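Proteins fold reproducibly. Take a sample protein:
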Amino acid sequence: MNKSILKRYLPFLTFIIFCIYIITLELSYYFDSSLGKVGIVLWYMLGVLLITHTILEFFGLLKKVSKGHFIVPIVIFLILNVVGIFYMSRPENISLEATQQVSCAINNFSVSEDWGYFQNCFLGYPARQFLMPLIPSLVGNSVFALHLGNYIYFLIGQVLFLSVSAKWISSTKKIRENLVSMLLIIPFHFHFFNYLNLTFEQAFYPIGLGLILFSTLLNMKLQINVRNILIFLISGLLIISSYTTALAYIPLIFLFGLYFLIIQKSSKKHKTIILSSLITLAVSLVVSLAYRGDLRFENNKEVLDKEKTELIVRTIFGFSDGLNFVSPVFTLIWILTLVSALLFKFRLLGVVFLVWVIAVFHSSVSTHGYAGPDMVFSLYRASVLIPPMLFLLLYNRVSFFNKKYSLIVVLILLISGLLFQYDYYKTKADNKSVILYELYTTLNREIEPPKEKLYLFELDKEPFLPILNGSGYFMKDIEVIFTKDLCIVDSKNSAILTDKAIPNVECENEVDYNQLDQKSLTIEGINDTLYLYQ
């Protein structure tokens, strides 16, 4: 009898102990931050649990596919990710911010006493969010590894959303399968989704994490169990430690958490661990506010006058003469969704969504952030609304089009969405990232070991100025230094890069630079021939 009781209560007791363990690690920030090393191990364990859960959900989807169901959605998913792999391989999409973020997170393992658990990387953003994205770069630093790591949250989110959708809708109704296909494509019709997607850096994380969260909420609506509550906890922890815009999900996390705690029918044991999860998330949130340095909510210095307000409204609804929030093909569906929520077509859930979306748009344009971008461009922050929108449409099993035309609509949305994304990609062709990447690649190949430093002599000009940003990732074994003084160069362990002949200089160390080996380098996009001395 005792064994039976223990077996019944063991998962719930384990969950509560696990929550206490996480809370203790979070609070160690105040009394012994070196325990963060244990937190890093915990974080990777959470990642393994999330990926394992995702694989199990995907296997459930494949069983339905093997029976002839959900064929179109799985084909759409594969097409979108094959296209994604193409963009991952393109140096045009290199973000020098991403190289700094991943390099910082990797360096934390050697320079930080807590391995980065309570540290920030790049302008004060939490370093924890980079722990999963850095994994491919541990195998080797490359464009593909960098981009694959920064795509990982979105890929997990896509798989979960697709897998949970197969459980949420009836597999006998093709129009609903086509709804899921449409929902997979919808993100590619948002301009700033494509901007963030093809930048492959931390600002893209919240969209993937949002997909993970709202897919989990659907799973919990279908079945309250320990596994689904655990994934809810993990997604909340990831969101709390992610890029600033992800914090917009925090009110929704606690709102839905209270719904499952108070309204949704479940056992007392399940409600207990839901409460434990919410307490754990609350503690993690409070502690994160103490160490993260990216919370810059001062007002935007740009004046929001009548003309600017009208431009922002036209941009949001797709009627601007220039940049628009959504593609022309998707504008009608976008407006119908907002109007349907306003008219209470989605009941209370739609009202919550609409109020939240208005708040997100307002905070996007009204807050300054780090750089204080133009108010229209600031709308990129509102891309976090995409996962809740997909959740709302799927939850209500919305059918915008007649069954006869639903597949045609899916094909039109797919082709136009990919073209919309490609149009943005073309604006990045032959940009500075391509030049710098070729420069990194060439220098890695030409600099002979054991050189430890590369001095850029009188190259403090374009396009060389940003070279330091990505050198820590693409040239991790060589320190890059700008200089106008050759006398500081130790020729034994250093190389010199310049676009001119090295002049005769008199130095105390009496180095004859004419004896250095000179090699000419031709980099596409740089007009002058470069000379490498070593």
